[in-house]
Amino acid sequence: MKKAGRSKFRNAVGINLLFLNGISNFRFYRVNKMKNFLRFVLAVIAILNFYNTIADAQNLDLNKVPFSTAGSYFAISTLLNRVPQDTLYINHFLGYDTRQVFKIIPIGENNEELKYTVRAFPWMIGLNSESSQLQICFENPKTIRLKSQRKGFKLTSGMIRYPIPMPGGKQFRLMGKDRYDRFMITCISGGIDIKKVGNEYEIIVTALNESCELAIEEYVSEWEPREYKMSFEDCKNKVENNYEAFIAKASIANNKYIDAKKLALFINWSSTVYQRGFMRREGMLMSKNWMNYIWSWDNCFNAIGMAGSFTDLAWDQVMVVLENQDELGILPDRFMDVFIHYGFTKPPVYGYTIDQLEKIPGVMNLDRYKEVYPYLVKLTEFWLKYRDDNKNMLPEYHHGNDSGWDNGTVFDIGFPVEGPDLSSFLIIQMDKLSEIALKLNLKEDSYNWKLKADNLYKKLMNEFWIDGKFVYRNSITNLYDDNSSSLLPYIPIALGRRLPEEVREKLISDLKNSGIITKYGPATENPLSPKYAYDSYWRGPIWAPSTYIIVEGLNDCGEKELAKEIAIKFCDLCLKNGFAENYDAVSGTPFRDQAYTWTASVFLSFLDKYSD
Question: 3-state DSSP call for residue 129?
Fold first, then answer.
């Protein structure tokens, strides 16, 4: 939005509120009905000015996309237990899971709840009632500011156990029900009171001199005393400038995708959290709705999607997971700042990711090759040593979660499962290790990795390419999944021209003619399959990573027209239905989490490569 437009909004609201105050004191309008009527009219004017002057800005649907800022563990949305409500919640992510810590409620003079409308933008939220306006913004990633004109507001919480008053009566420490939530509540202007009502606490902030303002600041061990000297307006402007500076780094073409690209960038920008605990670098969560972790292959697609304009942020997404590798070489399934889970893992797509990043100018350099090489070595050795129980030199999955395709139909044969996607990723990774070793002057290592890659490739083709298709096999029973309609057996197309020509042609022909590619893109299970289900996670819906791998594999195989066609289908799907976790393959309906970063990242990558 143009700065002139924002100034008009600020001036209009300020003038109207001053006018309201003047009327309140003007003796000719002491008649209550007239005064209330004029207040109502002028409040409506203020709201209309607000709407009109921000028409060109980016509106956020808080039912789907949470309001947050870069680096913060706070977010604000309407979601409660994943379901949109008619109110706003301040969520906090330090710890294990999403917490709706505070419910935000504008109130009148008698503590009655006011009806309001909400407008949200990347830098602020406005809650507008007939007689007041409550605005919310971030001062910094750890601090939320709330300011209300004319009326007060209250915050209710069932997550607080210990409100502790500070000297002066304007501050309270709030201790959560578990050991993670710690907040300092500071009343900057107006009055404040905290009381317990049933099982909840109410923080009531009342307006004095026509306004009130509150700061909510998180802390971990102890709060560092400070004053909140920055004005609310300056806080809002600072966030807005930070956001606009971020957006400015990305090339945004003036085409039909312009607003969708800005939304994708906002989702990724606002989904980052600051370094803390297992989050050893600035990390990008999968979402600040409820998928508020990093899964150890989702991050790779975020790295690819952001690398074109945000090289350092992209590289941090690769390393933030690798730096949590354990001594055996396994990567965690998922982690957060205080929680890490090694019970599952994710497929070894890091060699594939490095290969994709090498295609983007300015990302890879010798220092980064040196940094990543030992992690890739340990990761590859983990799969070769600890995921080959029958010692036949073909790695296996012990659970669907380890593949990333949690409940894919190829796993119906039971575990452990040997499959072509896993071997393909490891072949790509060992090829990449061979290349990196050569760059690092490790010639013997380079030779050995190339030899291992070639040997696994031979076994892949001999064991899994049967009767013109790739198949999966239970490594204990030797039962084959020889009639699969899953997209997973097509993932070896990622090998590109390493595959024999006849294999490439057969995979491409089947993709074109089997019905697995719908009007929206490649379904994870063919809609013609009896196992297909429309909202079934990996047994039908369209996902960003599988689409990306298929598109880039087709492109590497020389099937550029089909690759572009599928990429544009995906971009159009995001344009129409947002950045969901996954989508109905037949109708395009968005499913699950509606602000998912790897979806936004694949969209951004496809726009850079395939949009005109």
Answer: coil
Buried-state track 236-267, b at ≥16 Cβ within 10 A, e below 16: bbbbbebbeebbeebeeeeeebeebbbbbbbb
Residue showing tokens 């990093």:
294
Enclosing domain of residue 44: 1-56
Give yes or no: residues 158 and 115 share one domain: yes
Helix extents (H) in 26-141? 32-53
| Kind of pairing between the strands at 124-128 and 133-140 | antiparallel
Give the pLDDT of residue 7: 41
Question: What is the full DSSP assignment across 50-74?
Answer: HHHHTTTS----TTTS-B--TB-SE
Q: What are the tokens at 355?
A: 């290969």
362 within a domain of the structure (yes/no)? no
Q: What is the pLDDT of residues 406-428, one digit of tens each?
A: 999 999 999 999 999 999 999 99
What's the total number of domains in the chain? 3
Query: Which of 221, 241, 261 corresponds to the end of one domain?
Result: 241
The tokens of 440 are what? 């690092």
Whether 64 and 193 share a structural domain: yes
SS3 52: helix
Same domain, 83 and 193: yes
Q: Where are the beta strands (DSSP E) in 456-501?
A: 465-466, 469-470, 472-474, 480-481
Give the separation between CA 551 and CA 557, rounded to whole angstroms. Answer: 10
Q: What is the pLDDT of residues 143-188, one digit of tens each?
A: 999 999 989 999 999 887 788 899 998 999 998 766 567 899 999 9
SS3 492: helix
Nearest to 544 by CA among 515, 519, 524: 524
- At 347, which amino acid appears? P
- State percent of the chain over pLDDT 90: 79
Query: What would the DSSP string read from start to end of 173-211?
Result: EEEESSSS-EEEEEEEESEEEEEEETTEEEEEEE-BTTE
CA 532/CA 414 separation, integer angstroms: 18
Look at the block and give the residue holding tokens 């019905």. Answer: 515
Q: Whole-model pTM?
A: 0.89
Q: Are 39 and 62 members of one domain?
A: no
Q: 119 and 220 share a domain?
A: yes
Q: 15, exposed or middle or buried, with CB in 10 Å at 0-12, 13-18, 19+?
A: middle
